[in-house]
Every structure is written in structure tokens, then in C-alpha cells.
């Protein structure tokens, strides 16, 4: 009788160690357990710079920041208007910043160079030998040079009015240029010459190859590559 009990106990123990198919349950390996315990590592792309470039920042940094902004549809900036009358610019563009500080247009008479009227808090004064209507915030930026302040007998490329508003945080691409509007100012790059500029009411800042040079008698300030 004692032998029968021992045999039954052994059979029961063997049944508990088998799976549903009658095969022995496999023991989890140490390698499998370690793999299950490993945390999942995810990588994310580097964040785009959110703050505007500081003064004297490398031009590559300025370009990266400008290009990080989503593009504005250029077709919305192909005309100017004054007193409700619109004028088509063809391949040209015109735009203003939301603050109204910078009003820009490509000048077809100057090979599509960018010209802006900037409401400067402290514009360069009119030179003694310059006559005519002085525009201290008139900025001509063809790429390899930049001038601030000049005299004009008429409104030039602004005669027919101004363009649409370029929202903050968006960039406009046209010709050799790309401009991004920001609350800190308007930043524009000229790819052909790898130069860049910042326009705001506090002044005009340059990046890349643009360096100050002796001021000619007919402008307020001049920068050149």
C-alpha cells in the first residue's frame, strides 16, 4: 500500500511539470529574461534653433535658422497696393513685417535686388552735401553690398504701394533670397554671396562677408563683401 502511494505521488509530480501538449514546460533562459528587462531606447532628431541668431553669429547659423521656418506661398506676394489699387509685380515680390517696421520689395530696375524701408529709431543723418528727400531707413541689399540711408526724388519701387504681410515665423523664398519675419526683426539671406542681414527698429545688423567700409558721401552707411 505504501508503494502504491509513492508511485501515485511521482506520477502527479511529473504531470505538473508538463505543458498542455504533454511536453515538459521550458524554463525561461537568462538571456531572454535580460532582453525583456531592457528599456526601449528611442532617438529624436535634433531640435531646430528657436531663438533668432545673435549679433555676429556665423552666417551658416543664420541660414539654418531662416530655413527652419515653414515657407510662405510666394504667389501671395506678387503684387503691391495703394489706396485699393493693386499692381502686379510679375516675377518680383513685396512684403511687410507684421509690425510694419520693414517694408520690402524687389527692384526690377536693379536686377531684382532687395530694397526695404525700415522705420529706424535712430536712422543715419543726412550728409551735409546730399540734397533731396533723405530716407534714413532706406536699405538697398543687392547681396555683395548693403547701404543704409539715401536721398530720393521719388518713391522709386514703392511708388505703387506695399506688399502683403509676411507673418512671424514664416519665410519667403525668392530669387537669391530667403527672408524670415520674427518679432526680433526681419532676417534675410542672399545665397549667391552667403551674406545676411537683420532689419529692425533698433538698427541694421550684418552677417557673413558684409563688413563696414568707409561711408560714401551720398549714403548713411555702407557694408561690403
Structural overview:
- This protein is an alpha+beta fold and 225 residues long.
- The protein has one domain (59-224).
- The chain is 14% helix and 35% strand.
- The strands form three sheets. An eight-stranded mixed β-sheet has the order 8-3-4-5-6-7-15-14, with no helix packed on it.
- A hairpin with a 2-residue loop joins strand 9 (171-174) and strand 10 (177-182).
- Residues 1-22, 32-36 and 41-47 have low confidence and may be disordered.
Provide keyphrases for this structure.
14% helix; 5-stranded antiparallel sheet; 8-stranded mixed sheet; single chain; 3 helices; 15 strands; 225 residues; 35% strand; disordered N terminus; alpha+beta
Poorly predicted runs of 5 or more residues: 1-22, 32-36, 41-47
Strand order of the largest sheet: 8-3-4-5-6-7-15-14
Total helical segments: 3
Helix/strand order, N-terminal first: HHHEEEEEEEEEEEEEEE
Q: What percentage of amino acids are in beta strands?
A: 25-35%
What's the story with the biggest beta sheet? 8 strands, mixed
Topology, number of strands: 15
- Overall geometry comes to globular
Helix content: 10-25%
Average pLDDT figure: 85
Distance between the termini: 109 Å
Secondary-structure-based class equals: alpha+beta
* Tally of domains: 1
Radius of gyration: 34 Å
Brief synopsis:
This protein is of the alpha+beta class and 225 residues long. The chain has three helices and 15 strands. It has one domain.
Helix and strand arrangement:
Layout: H1 2-16, H2 30-37, H3 59-67, E1 79-82, E2 85-88, E3 94-96, E4 102-107, E5 113-118, E6 133-141, E7 145-152, E8 164-165, E9 171-174, E10 177-182, E11 185-190, E12 195-200, E13 203-208, E14 211-212, E15 219-224
Parallel strand pairs: 3-8
Antiparallel strand pairs: 1-2, 3-4, 4-5, 5-6, 6-7, 7-15, 9-10, 10-11, 11-12, 12-13, 14-15
